[in-house]
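Reopening closed ticket. The problem is back. First fold of the pair:
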Amino acid sequence: MRIINVATKGNTDIVDITYELFQLVNKEDFENGLVHLFVKGSTAAITTMENDPNLFEDFRTVLDKLVPYNFNYKHHQTWGDNNGAAHIRASLIGMSLIVPVLNGNFMLGAYQRIVVIDFDTKPRNREVVISFIKSTY
């Protein structure tokens, strides 16, 4: 198991970590199996998407309509941290991802990238926990 740190800006910041993960898979000499990724924290998520700034903006626009930051969430009354939307967004996207590896390469589509998304309202240093599950055949 390994951990990588990801510096984020918050407010639905999307950070591509594919290359760093690819380097780690090579360093570990991991040939075949599954890589399980888990981002720590209840206001961040991990998923795949194309690394396109316009798509990132579209993604933010859709989330702003579905789960706006400027809403009076009951969570704000409980904690006073004004990040209720961040918790909901992270739960909808999810905190973990499994990616197959074959012959040392992630089995991703041509434009598919692995990204961490930080929904919190301020910059953070996120930890992504990586587990390697070797294939037995």
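Second fold of the pair, where the issue appears:
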Amino acid sequence: MQQFTTLFDSFIPVFTAPSFLHFQTLMVSLWCLPLLTGGRMSLVRVWAVSGVSQHWDALLRFVRSYVWEQDELARCLTLCVLERVKARLPRTEDGRRLLLIGVDETGDEHPSAKKMFGVSRHHHHSARVGQSKYRKGHCWVTLSILTDVSEEYVRSFAIHIALYIARKSCPPATYQSKRELATEMLNKLEQWVGWQYQIVVVGDGYYACRAWIAEQREKQRRVVTRLRSDARLYELPPSKRRKGRGRPKTYGKKICLWRRALTDQKFEAEQEILVYGRKHAVRLRKMVCVWRGLEEPVSVVIVKGIGKKPVYLLDTDGEASAVETLHFYGARHAVEQPYEDLKCDGGLGHYLGRTEQGVRRFAQLCVTSHTLLRLIEIVPEMRGALAEVKEPWRKRLEHLTMGQLRTAISKLMLEEHERSGNFFNFDVQARDANNAEAERARRRKAA
């Protein structure tokens, strides 16, 4: 396990020495403790198998009241991810790297949680026939870094998470919409990464809001999203106007997207493109037009060949190609599966406390553990040290699933338990390091 704990070194400035010990234990516990001990994970079970404190309440205080900042943890996580994936990011013509940020929401259900902070009623978009269209629980807005956009397998690394509380469940003065939470996190991200990266925000149709897009444009961010077929689009106004009275035209001829999709001769030739991990024979048509309510023109791409109906994509970069816009929006789908992993195995849907600070902190800790586990798969030295997982029934792929990663780490922890009688041994490592430092100080004093 020593080769994997080097991932935690980037987070040393965030915590004190005792807190950092609890942080390491909780990260590895979220990786694979349910596989080792079975059943639902709790802080008492983490304490029982780790032995890093005298009482399990120390771990609870680490989540609820110890002095460390959630935003500082997110900043260190972002820089740690970028250090290892920057070679996988696309570049602009001037050499700047495009930092693709997937913005999306996910929810977990807590129907009987009456005293847990942040639980409110939310619309259930994926409700089946007979199910309620509303559910009670948490709703989270997350930011994820998307890499390998043009490859067969797009990777998503979650870096930040914020809690959305419904308007009826919080005081009016403290209410923030999902778009406002996303903007707040994007502002922090821009401060962390600096000017070396051009931020490209990729979101679903919820973020096709003219006021929100205009706000992102003011901050020099590019937005790629999905557009409704009834959007009020117009052609660019004529550059020259006839002599006569009146001011120049603001809009050109009105555009009806579904009618434009019927004229096949205006589309590009059919081509095979990897979207959502599969090859699709698609035909594209790009138009630079004006969306009523936005001052600057946008690029709209009509996509035929993915699904039964045409798909309409919006890109605020008018010079981008239609293929690039499709690749960027298709990469957004990579954030969906990590959300399910987070809620099922990563601890996000199994919170262990009730306070406001505890709820927010534990969500960020779950995101951190999930992202660090995904980083092990792309670092060659760490991937080579993983235990072999034999699954002859599964199709062999170049990438590893989260279940395979957790199984491989759990095998290494079982080997560690056979050698030392402890799954983690973090307290022994810390004690040995302190003793070694004290011994070196005594030797220097004696010399």
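Update: turned out to be a display glitch only; the data is intact. The chain has two domains: 2-68+386-446, 72-338. The two ends are 36 Å apart (CA to CA). Please close again.
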